[in-house]
Amino acid sequence: EVQLVESGGGLVQPGGSLRLSCAVSGFSLSDFWMKWVRQAPGKGLEWVATIKQDGSEKYYVDSVKGRFTISTDNAKGSLYLQMDSLRADDTALYYCVRGTGTARIPNIATLLYNWGQGTLVIVSS
Amino acid sequence: SYVLTQPPSVSVAPGQTATISCGGSNIGSKSVHWYQQKPGQAPVFVVYDDSARPSGTPERFSGSNSGNTATLTISRVEAGDEADYYCQVWDSYSDHVIFGGGTKLTVL
């Protein structure tokens, strides 16, 4: 059974840092693109970052570029999101997501297939 | 950047048909996925590649995509269908995942 369990969220002051972790089981990180998606309280979904299976490609939404870093440790079965220079508008529930290709686009993980339950990040003084 | 536009809310009586639109420039050329999110839960995809249904999604859920609009249609709506629905595409120019703003489906 595929499981994704996020941790590391909490309350942090503006300008501070936080590292989110996602422990996965039931599959290998070396086989799948992984993503982080966030949802501000009462708001919609926002994609944050994507990492390719081998870590050779990483993509970020413009609002976090230069501040957030996505990474994986395949041996530990963990996905990470290092968040620096945090701002109030980074406050959100952060989901770890396994991506997959589909029949239409098999080589790119366009479909967000499995989701964790999320970890809450609150940026406030 | 690519933008997807959804109506904020749709209301429908039980047993009727709900239609949720997702507008985007030439979205018909893209593959559209739809997610359902119930309160307090993580999203789950209910339609992918415009109109394909994963196992577990009732046949009452269907999708279409043409021109500048993709559509999720839920027939014979049930109280359990009440949720937020999001459309999503992958933008090949930026390699970014794009979500629509979401539509709250209310079953009257």
Describe the SSE topology.
The complex is a heterodimer of chains A (125) and B (108).
Chain A: E1 3-7, E2 10-12, E3 18-25, E4 34-39, E5 45-51, E6 58-60, E7 68-73, E8 78-83, E9 92-100, E10 111-115, E11 119-123
Parallel strand pairs in A: 2-11
Antiparallel strand pairs in A: 1-3, 3-8, 4-5, 4-9, 5-6, 7-8, 9-10, 9-11
Chain B: E1 9-12, E2 18-23, E3 33-37, E4 44-47, E5 61-66, E6 69-74, E7 83-91, E8 96-99, E9 103-107
Parallel strand pairs in B: 1-9
Antiparallel strand pairs in B: 2-6, 3-4, 3-7, 5-6, 7-8, 7-9
Task: Write a short abstract of this structure.
By secondary structure, chain A is mainly beta.
Please state the CA-atom Rg of chain B, rounded to the nearest Å: 13 Å
Give me the number of helical elements of chain B. Answer: 0
Distance between the termini of chain B: 36 Å
Oligomer: heterodimer
What is the overall shape of chain A?
A: globular
Average pLDDT score of chain B = 97
As a percent range, the share of helical residues of chain B equals under 10%
Query: What summary fits the major beta sheet of chain B?
Result: 6 strands, mixed
Task: Describe this protein with a few key phrases.
heterodimer, A: 125 residues, mainly beta, 4-stranded antiparallel β-sheet, 11 strands, globular, B: 108 residues, 6-stranded mixed β-sheet, 3-stranded antiparallel β-sheet
Tell me about this structure.
The complex is a heterodimer of chains A (125) and B (108). Helices cover 0% and strands 50% of the residues of chain A. Chain A is built from no helices and 11 strands. In chain A, the strands form 2 sheets. In chain A, strands 2, 4, 5, 6, 9, 10 and 11 form a 7-stranded mixed sheet that branches. In chain A, strands 1-3-8-7 form a 4-stranded antiparallel sheet, with no helix packed on it. Chain A is globular. Chain B has no helices and 9 strands. Chain B has strands spanning 9-12, 18-23, 33-37, 44-47, 61-66, 69-74, 83-91, 96-99, 103-107. The radius of gyration of chain B is 13 Å and the shape is globular. The relative contact order of chain B is 0.34. The interface between A and B is medium-sized, with 25 and 27 residues.
